[in-house]
Amino acid sequence: MAEIRCPMCSAVNHADAEECVECGARLTPLIAGDEPTGESRESGLAASAEGQTAEGEDWLARIRRDAESPPPEEEPEEAAEDIEPGESPDWLGQLRQADQAYEEGPPTGDQPDWMDEFVAAGDEETPEADQDEEVPEWLARIRERTQSKEISTEIDDDWISSLRDEEAQLSAERPAGLEELEPAPEEDQEEEADLPQSAPLDLGALSSVPPPDRPSGEWRLTDEEAEAGVDAEFATGPPADFSEEGFREDAGEVQGELPHVPALIPEDTGEKPIIEIDEKVLDSAELPGWLEQIKPALAAMEEEEAAFGEDQEDDEDDLAPATLPSWLEAMRPVDAFRPEIDLEPEDDQPVESAGPLAGLRGVLMAEPIVAKPRTSSVSASRLEVTERQYAQAELLQRLVESESREVRAGPEKPFTLPITRWIVTLVLVVAILLPYGFEQFGFQGFATPNVQSRDVAPLVSLVNNVPVEQPALVVFDYTPGYSGELDTVARSVLVHLNNRNIPIVTLSTRVTGPPLAERLMRAISEESAGDGIQYLHLGFLSGGPTAIQLFAVSPRDAILTGFRLPEGLSRQNVWASPILQDVRRLSDFGVVVVITAGTETARTWAEQTQPWIGESPLVMVLSAGAEPLIRPYYESLNQQVDGVLTGLPSAVAYQQNTGQQAAALQSWDSFGSGLMMVEIILLAGIGYGVSRWLLDRRSG
Amino acid sequence: MKLGSYLIWAAVAAVSGLFVLLGYFIPVNLIPVAFQLRLLIMQWAVLLAAVGLFVGLANIFLVHWTKVGEQSEGWPYSAILLIFFLITLMVGLVFGPDSETVRLLFNYVQLPVEATLSGILAISLALAGFRILSYRRDFISVVFVGTAFFVLIGSGPGLIPNDGPGYEFFAGLRNWIAQVAAAGGARGILIGVALGSVVTGLRVLLAIDRPYGDG
Amino acid sequence: MPVLSLDFFGMIIAALLTIMVLSYIIADNLLFRIAVYIFIGVASGYAGAIAWHNVIRPALIDPILQGGFSTLFNSEAIGTFLIPLLLSILLLMKLSRTTARLGTISVAILVGVGAAVIVGGAITGTLIPQSVATTNALTPEVAFPAEGENVASWLERLISAVVVVVATITTLLYFRFSAQKERSGETRRSRFNAVVAYIGRTFIAVTFGVMYAGALMATVLVLAQRFEFLRSVLLMLAGGG
Hints:
The complex is a heterotrimer of chains A (700), B (215) and C (241).
Chain A lengths: L2 E3 L6 E3 L28 H13 L3 H10 L5 H9 L7 H8 L15 H11 L4 H7 L2 H12 L10 H12 L18 H4 L30 H6 L15 H10 L35 H4 L2 H14 L1 H5 L11 H6 L34 H5 L16 H18 L14 H15 L4 H4 L14 H9 L7 E6 L5 H17 L4 E5 L4 H15 L7 E6 L4 H9 L1 H4 L32 E6 L2 H10 L9 E5 L4 H9 L7 E4 H12 L9 H32 L1
Helix pairs in contact in A: 1-4, 3-5, 8-11, 18-28, 20-27, 21-22, 21-27, 23-25, 25-26
Chain B lengths: L2 H23 L6 H39 L4 H21 L4 H36 L3 H17 L11 H39 L10
Chain C lengths: L5 H17 L7 H38 L10 H15 L11 H32 L4 H4 L7 H24 L5 E2 L5 E2 L2 H47 L4
Antiparallel strand pairs in C: 1-2
Helix pairs in contact in C: 1-2, 1-7, 3-4, 6-7
């Protein structure tokens, strides 16, 4: 005997078994007319199963039987009486259980009265009056309304014929949810014999129903609706053909199969659902409860149909591919979610193996569908890019590409001799060394300038007015690289101070300042007659402008030790020196002389010492290149710099004015010779540039 | 970056800086406590600058030590640097920077090399002056070179003898150029530099720029 | 015969180093690099030694040597010793990447105080005084001749004052780069701004020309003294003393 393996636990069961003996899972999918035996897992299935069990057979099975034999008349009434509000026929209930998340669905149970009436009417060719007696009141009212209004229609309202057509189209594609309504697929053919055959739906009785004046599928409006002028054209589907002939013919084509009921979740046929239910019709108190529950859906459907209007008349047969009917769409709680479901053939659909729908075919797979990427309901607007943005994007792209691109090493520059540099060097060196041979050639060297800078005399006067009892603070803020120039220039001022017996206190904000100060002061002291020069080194003060400000505010808190202190003076107590005994503030110094080659340092001293310097003059001994940027501090009415001495010529003039031994003249000839050669080089460069310009101009 | 630590550093920089800055506009010396506090903060900065100098020197040492250890390109030079660095530092730390040994190192190693490097600069500057009109022939370059020439002529011994008849004219011209025209331009530059310094400093004080990092 | 003293050998070493550096004029070479690396080593070592002896030791070591370790617990020394010691130790943490974050507070104090000093000095030391000096350049004393002053002298003074003011203003306006976008898409200054900026640029060229001439004078003097030194060493070696 054939065996069937349980999809859940893989246990082997009898081929005829409906449920697994091990785990109780259904081994055969539930189809319409099945009478579930055994236990049911879920309440929904249980309810339907119970309903089916209670009724013994579903309505389609009944219809099928009725098609073969006249159905009992009491049965519909009983069914109608038995049906309670809120109950739905089995087929509909089973349909709804396919998607329990959405719908409560019509309650399971017997077929509604109207279906029974259809069945009954299909077997009887009774006059209209007779049929009226058997048709429910609410349906009769609808008929009356439709007859009272003349609604032009060019639509074929034969929904039975359309049902037939659709059945032909859908015969190959059974909706997954309706699997249960039909006999099992081929592999389950052998089980068909065990399944009660549902009577084909005998809707022949409906053929006697007078064709509605409006397109089929529309229920007759109530009087209120008619007065309100509700647009009656909301048909979205082809009219159903309720004629007996049409249906039986259709049923004959699918002998042994249940008549196809259009899917609530339609396939991609482009056709609109056949069954349309007017919400307003459901205002009747006689309507079953399950119909009342779908009133909101009808309202949405009505609006949609009204909007489509004539287009729907033309495209009545076209249902948007892969879209839900509007009335079902309106029931959807999530907006703008349009799952696209491709319904596979029944045979190819997998059997659900878990959950309450185990054993069923064509059950919606939760994960693939829910997680399916959804299409946007609103088409993305076209990206508008301006020219500027495009250019910037292109530039950015080029930059990014250039980053990853390998930079090819350029061709090696051919080695060229720096002839020009050698010539300039040779000329300059010869010029500098030439004066050492002047004596041999009788050349007396360069004369001292007879025009002095107008800064020299005021400075001489200023230094002459420095109080003798107050020490002079000399700041050595230059690098050893400029010691050749600044030692020579500053020497003139320092010697002048020494000649006036003014003690000198040195300080530096550079690490090389203290040794430079010691070197120069020692040289001056060795050259000076007498006891030498009185000087004291305060050493190095770190911090740049902050150190200058700190020293200006409180010198004793800034300097904690000295540099190369004389004997008897400990480094922890430099302020105990006799030179500094009366010094508490910056203004206690007789003069502040800053020797520097950098404009930045000179500017910082000029900025930070105000107003702490008081009346003490600030003198700048500068390299020739730093003069222009310090002169504004000197040339203003409120001078921040009281004296300036720049360059060797000014130092020579200063020494001459103060009667010093012209030590600056030691390098005067070399300096003059070198300077002359530089002037010649500049002139040559000007001439070379002009000649090239003229040549370029001539050549065009 | 943790939000909390970033605020702490910014607050420290801003508070310490603003307290020092106030001393320029408010006579804090009249308020002894404020005066002392301002002084204290500046003393901390001066000390930290010296420690920072040590950190920089340590970094130099580590960089060249790594170069020697890995024997990367130019490692012999780094070895020479390290040797003289350690010798000078050790002698200076032990005997003091004002000792005779360190004085010799300074006078006969550091000073001559640095002075010679400055001397080479004269050749580079002269060469640049020779080439400037060959590369750039515009009015501004002509003004630049012409000004330099006339200042040199009028500054000292050179092409024009100092005791010659024309020297007085060129000396006066040089004085006028340096003390009037150049002074005016220098004043504009100084004001512009001061404005830039104020903006940059305020950005730091207001924690808009945080050169100390956010870490 | 020269005295073989340390100074003698020092001068020979200095002369050799001078020649090694001067060899760069020919081309970059091994001797030049050796001399420069020796210089960097000595300069760095000396900087560390003087920073230690002049700043760090007096502030952090001498208090302990003088007052003993009780100084660490002295409440009066919190601001003058303990906090600076802690900040210095934190700054030293910057040497390691793992502990660098700890030194941020020290750097923050350095940066904050430095910025404040620069801002305060720039405002009170340059901006205000120089602006006042510019406005005071054309005072009545300048604009009108003094009593007994000849016309030439007064004109020279007046012209000089006007030139200084014009130079100051045009130089400042040169650094104003505001411009308008024209219809052609090109961004340029207005005609007036362009003319004023060009004048300012001319005065800047004059200023830089004076600075260039001064740098030339200074470096020529330094070069001359270097050769003078070499000459003296040669003479010394030759026995000239």
